Amino acid sequence: MRRFKKIISDFCIRSGQRINNKKSVIIFENSVKKRRKKAITKLWGFKMVKEVFYLGIKLALRRLLASDFNYILEKVNSKLNVWGKQMISLDGRIVLTKSVLVALPVFVATYTLIPMSILKEIEKAARNFIWDRQGGLHGLYYMSWEKMCKSWKEGGQGLRSVSAMTGPLGAKFAWNFLKEEDSLLNKAMMAIYGTKFWEQANIANKSSTWKILVDGALALRPITKWKIATGKSINILKDVWILYRCLEKWPTFVAVENIEFPLLESFISWKLED
After folding, report:
1. I need a labelling partner for 161 at 20 to 30 A (CA). Which of 102, 113, 127, 206 fits?
2. Backbone angles phi and psi of 84, in degrees to 5
């Protein structure tokens, strides 16, 4: 740590920049001894904390719980408390819900895994705000939330379901994960959880990173198609590699559900040998 501080100090001298100790904090893992924690914090002059907010996202050296995301609900409730004191039309409430309420968790959900219970609570608050009357009186729900989340062409209101947006938000990370096969993240995750990235049905007791990647992969799967090369990773029945859907979803007179098909690689090599 002394050597690392020397490197940072040299950089500050050369660049003219300085470290703001008041804005800097340091987080230690539980395995670090108390005596060493004090020595390092004294060396750097940083405040020691167990968790910190960085760019609106909570960071901690542990698995985040549902209670760690209550700050999102507090933001939602603070908005509702302000809006509840004003006379707003139904169209105005729908616009506010679309542009503010359901947009609050989007940034956080892009970089971390928000528990589904928190997302459901946000949707519940949004429904109540749209349909309830002044003074906290419950109103009549004229349209289901699922239908309101459909587009105008489909008879909805164009709202977004926050509980259904986690997959599309993680699709970018999943795509980069697939493309960068030599990255440290790819090697580590594949070594722990295996290579069947698209077929993960049960992701319980897995890391948050893997859950985000699998959720994004499931959102990518309906809109992607394999480009044929060696065929070593393509499942003949379940993967999309011909036209726009997998073979098991095409109409057929033959029951193929219980048949074990080899990978496409076997057919390519057989054709070449023939």
Report:
1. 206
2. -65, -20
CB environment 150-177: b (16+ within 10 A), e (fewer): beeeeebbebbebbebbbebbbebbeeb
Provide the pLDDT for residue 15.
Answer: 92
For the chain, give the number of residues. Answer: 274
Domain boundaries, the chain: 1-49, 68-160, 166-221, 229-273
Q: Which amino acid is at 41?
A: T
Q: What is the mean pLDDT of each run of 10 residues along the chain (274 residues)?
A: 91 90 86 90 88 80 81 86 78 84 81 83 86 71 82 82 79 83 85 71 70 81 77 77 77 65 74 53
pLDDT value of position 254: 63
Q: How far apart are CA 67 and CA 18, in angstroms?
A: 36
Contacts of 156 (CB under 8 A, 6+ apart): 147, 148, 149, 150
- What pLDDT shows up at residue 176? 84
- pLDDT value at residue 32: 87
Neighbours of 270 (CB within 10 A): 10
Residue with tokens 């489909």: 154
The model's pTM: 0.65
